[in-house]
Amino acid sequence: MPIFHVPRINPSEITPNEVFLNRRNLIAGAAAAGLAAVLPKGSAAAAKLDFAKSPLSTDEAPTPLEDVTSYNNYYEFGTDKGDPAANASTLTTKPWTVAVDGLVARPTEFHLEDLLSSVALEERIYRLRCVEGWSMVIPWIGFPLSEVLKRSEPLGSAKYVAFETVVRSEEMPGQKGLFQALAWPYIEGLRLDEAMHPLTILAVGLYGETLPNQNGAPIRLVVPWKYGFKSIKSIVRISLIEKQPETSWNRQNSGEYGFYSNVNPQVDHPRWSQATERPIGTGGLFAKRKPTRLFNGYAEQVAHLYTGMDLRKFY
Ligand SMILES: Nc1nc2c(c(=O)[nH]1)N[C@H]1C(S)=C(S)[C@@H](COP(=O)(O)O)O[C@H]1N2
Ligand SMILES: [Mo]
């Protein structure tokens, strides 16, 4: 076990960015060459979204799009930071449905297009802090998760919300083969009050356009005061339940990853400090680390959710 956590060097930090093809380059290139066929079937071209700005956005400078779309964690497509950008174009994101079920008066299977035509999209520029010690600022486009939950009318007995990512091993290379990084589906959960909090959103886009596949297209959760792994990608099921659900990283290593996983500079990971973070996209390898903030800087809005709880015990 290393005494210091030495972050793995990402190829995007030592190679000119242009080498990395993201979906937009691919689409622009294909369009220029008149090659619509370059896009895999069912993977949607990036489309512009209509949205309003939100007072809940930070005014910090967003991480460049190039970094947001080439430095990713999405183990269904591989465990290296560049794997999702390289492999995720195979995921078919159309058509897409999200089931909302469990302890609700109206279990519903939403077709994504119907859902999108009935919500008001907002831009939410949020800080994202990964448990690994790096961070970004991402201009998400989405809407409050509470909108969807309310439509299904949660029963009084519902205390938690469980989320599931799609399982599709023919399109997700990380889900097949001998070595499986995690058990599938990827699962996550929130307490109902966390899920209903106005900062908690379902994102369908970033930088004004539909989500790139590597960022969790077509719909993913964003919970900005918690470590990034809570923000589950490519959601197909949302279940209202009574008991605290299992979560992927807690199931994998419960001593290192808790259910709550609120960003907290005073509660270290067993193998590394959480006191500081490395902003991605600002100076590459030699970027200066900056202090990590309690609840990722959202304490004013969310600290009340945890009154009286020992944050070391409920990590
Ligand atoms: N289904 C799924 N969701 C996931 C992950 C994953 O591996 N699979 N990784 C998580 C982690 S560790 C982080 S930091 C964020 C990264 O989101 P981004 O790539 O859009 O920045 O996604 C989270 N959601
Ligand atoms: Mo993460």
UniProtKB/TrEMBL annotation:
Binding site for Mo-molybdopterin: N72, Y75, E76, C130, T165, N215, R220, S231, I232, K233
Family: Belongs to the MsrP family.
Enzyme class label: oxidoreductase
GO BP annotations, alphabetical order: protein repair
Keywords attached to this entry: Metal-binding, Molybdenum, Oxidoreductase, Signal
Domain Oxidoreductase molybdopterin-binding, first and last residues per copy: 92-249
Pfam family, one: Oxidored_molyb
Origin superkingdom: Bacteria
GO molecular function, one term: oxidoreductase activity, acting on a sulfur group of donors, quinone or similar compound as acceptor
Membrane among keywords: no
Record's comment on post-translational modification: Predicted to be exported by the Tat system. The position of the signal peptide cleavage has not been experimentally proven.
Cofactor binding description: Binds 1 Mo-molybdopterin (Mo-MPT) cofactor per subunit.
Subunit description: Heterodimer of a catalytic subunit (MsrP) and a heme-binding subunit (MsrQ).
UniProt name for this protein: Protein-methionine-sulfoxide reductase catalytic subunit MsrP
Chain's role: Part of the MsrPQ system that repairs oxidized periplasmic proteins containing methionine sulfoxide residues (Met-O), using respiratory chain electrons. Thus protects these proteins from oxidative-stress damage caused by reactive species of oxygen and chlorine generated by the host defense mechanisms. MsrPQ is essential for the maintenance of envelope integrity under bleach stress, rescuing a wide series of structurally unrelated periplasmic proteins from methionine oxidation.
Coiled coil: none
NCBIfam families, per database record: PRK05363.1
Enzyme Commission code(s) on record: 1.8.5.-
Catalytic activity: L-methionyl-[protein] + a quinone + H2O = L-methionyl-(R)-S-oxide-[protein] + a quinol; L-methionyl-[protein] + a quinone + H2O = L-methionyl-(S)-S-oxide-[protein] + a quinol
Gene behind the chain: yedY
Keyword match Acetylation: no
Necessary cofactors: Mo-molybdopterin
